[in-house]
Amino acid sequence: MITVKNAKSYLKNKIGEDTDDIKKVWEIFKDFCREPVEGVEDKEILFQCGVYDFTGEELFQLDFVRQFTVYDGDEYYGMEQLHCEFLLKPIDELSKLETVEWSMDYEDLDDFLNHIENLQEFKIPLNSKPIKLEIYQEEV
Q1: pTM of the model
Q2: Fewest CB within 10 angstroms: 15, 88, 90, 102, which?
Q3: Are the beta carbons of 13 and 31 closer than 8 angstroms?
Q4: Using one digit for the tens of pLDDT, what is the confidence trace for 77-110?
């Protein structure tokens, strides 16, 4: 069973070493989003992209996020986000793209994932070669 503690290593192992193929990573991430995580009831998924300078350099960030809201029984325990974030050069075609989409705004997970795959903010970066993929998990 996947736990919040082992989610990052689980996803990294699924992705393997082929980290510059955005489409392949997206397919693995989608499958991961459907898998149950111990102690987490809702499947809260975030897709976001845009040009930011969080690294000290302006880069286009394409970020697939699974958020874990953890409860111990009925008591709220905490929240963590697992990011699968591609960093790309902010070429003209990418620099105009920016969006934030949450799965909770859709009827179900499949509707959300289909919507994401039809966004220009998703389609256009698929043709770019990322600088790198960062997979990290943080408390929020």
Answers
A1: 0.93
A2: 102
A3: no
A4: 889 999 999 999 999 999 999 999 999 999 999 9
